[in-house]
Each structure stands twice: as structure tokens, then as C-alpha cells.
Amino acid sequence: MQKVTHTRKPKGLSGLSRFADTKAGRYNPRMDPVIPVENWRKGSQWAVLIKKHAEVVVDDEVVLPEFQKHCRRRPLPEFWRDWDRPIPAEAWKAHNCIPDEHYVQTLLAQSGLEEELTRRSVTHSAWDLSASKDRERRGWHPVTYKVSDATTRLIKSIKDIDNIYYETENRREWCTSNGKPAPCFLFARKFTRGAGLKLLDSSLIASK
User: Fold this and answer.
1) All residues at 6 or more sequence positions from 141 whose CB lies less than 8 Å from its CB, including other chains
2) What digits encode the pLDDT tens for the residues 61-104?
3) Segment 123-134, tens digit of pLDDT
4) How far apart are the C-alpha atoms of 9 and 51, rounded to whole Å?
5) Could you tell me if 106 and 41 are in contact, meaning their C-beta atoms sit under 8 angstroms apart?
6) Long-range CB pairs of 54-59, under 8 A, 24+ apart, other chains included
7) How many angstroms separate the Cα of 108 from the Cα of each of 29, 113, 122, 143?
8) Distance of CA 167 to CAs 68, 111, 119, 172, 173, Å?
9) What residue intervals traverse the membrane (predicted)?
10) Contact 108, 53 (CB under 8 A)
11) CB-based contacts of 143, cutoff 8 Å, min separation 6
């Protein structure tokens, strides 16, 4: 907690990756005019919010109802495979929206608070799933680190990341804290239970 407080509190900023989502087609025009498309944002589900922004989320009575009506996730293919009946054609045609990748970002943009946010996630994840055998799930979830992956080298490589390239915006951001160069990430995912226990037992997380 000391590391998180030291990194975030002095600047009074929330850590929340976000960008204008223009390619995924998740924005539902039915949200307009309550949520205009220019306020539609996408980003990581993981965030560190200061008290002011957390209160905005808790008190929201405008954006959330629109998400509940018009931003719903299409059923995942693995659930369809378990059905005893054919996959309904309308399931493929349904508007697909992933609310936990859009809600907080869009709400804070709608509230005019984007100048009080850092533009990057505080949680590291690896998305190179090119070797995935399941084409339907390829790219949907980050790599899960197993026990054999949980090494000093892996943790050091994550800690050493000091810049992030945003492909959709064609820009690179160098990470800082209080005006000084700093590691980009405070957390990392996804680790199996065994990998997590190995890291805790061997104190790899705290090692330099």
C-alpha cells in the first residue's frame, strides 16, 4: 500500500488507461444523446481511483442506466458449445459491448475529468496469444503465467518497463512519478494460484 500511495497520492491523479474507441464498434447509437459518441472511451478494467473519482462512480445515476440498457456482452462461444440446441442466429447479430472495458472511462470523460487521469493502466498484462489453438478465444484474454513462468527474470522484466506504446493512437508514453522516471506498472496479471504462491514464498515480488 505504501508503494501505491507514494506513486498516486502526491499528484492527485487516478490511474486509468483510456482511449477514444473508434474501431471496435461497441458504441451503441441508442445511447445518444445521453452518452454522445465523442465521450465513448475504452480501456483496462483495472484502475486506481482517487476518492473524488470513486465518489463519481458511486453516485452515478445517468451513465450506468444507459450501460445497463444498451451495453451488454454477447454470450461467449464456450457457453454455446454446451447447449443441446443449435446456436441461435440472433446471438451472432446481437450488439456486442464489454461494459467493464468502457464504463468507468466513459463516465469520467462524460464528467469532464479526463485532465485528472493518467492515460495508462497500472496493471501489466501480456496479450500475445498468437499461439492460441482456439481461434474463437484468441486475443480475448491475457496470457496466464504458470508456476514455471514465475521467475525473478519475469518480475524484473515487468518492473523494468518504463514506457508504453499505444498502437491505436500511434504514440509512446514514458512513465513518470512526481516528475521523475518510474516503472509503469504497480500490479500484474494473470497468474495461476500456484504461480502466485511461488512468488510469495520466494519473495520474488520484492526482489530487485
Assistant:
1) 129, 190
2) 999 999 999 998 766 555 555 555 565 555 555 678 889 999 99
3) 898 876 555 554
4) 10
5) yes
6) 56/107, 56/108, 56/111, 56/113, 57/104, 57/107
7) 19, 5, 17, 29
8) 30, 26, 13, 9, 11
9) none
10) yes
11) 125, 126, 127, 128, 129, 190
Q: Return the ∠ at Cα 23 (arms to 20 and 26), rounded to 5°.
A: 85
Q: Could you report the per-residue pLDDT of 3-44, keeping only the tens digit for each? A: 555 554 446 788 888 888 776 688 999 999 999 999 999 988
- Dump pLDDT digits (tens) for 162-207: 998 877 678 888 888 778 898 988 889 899 999 999 988 876 555 5
Q: What's the CA gap between 9 and 129, in Å, rounded?
A: 35
Q: What are the contacts of 68-72 at 24+ separation with CB within 8 A? A: 69/30, 70/28, 70/30, 70/31, 70/95, 70/97, 71/26, 71/28, 71/31, 71/97, 71/99, 71/102, 71/103, 72/97, 72/99
182: cell is: 518510474
Strands 117-118, 14-15: pairing kind = parallel
d(CA 198, CA 146): 10
pTM of the model: 0.71
Classified as helix, coil or strand, 15 is strand
Q: Where are the domains of the chain?
A: 13-120, 122-208
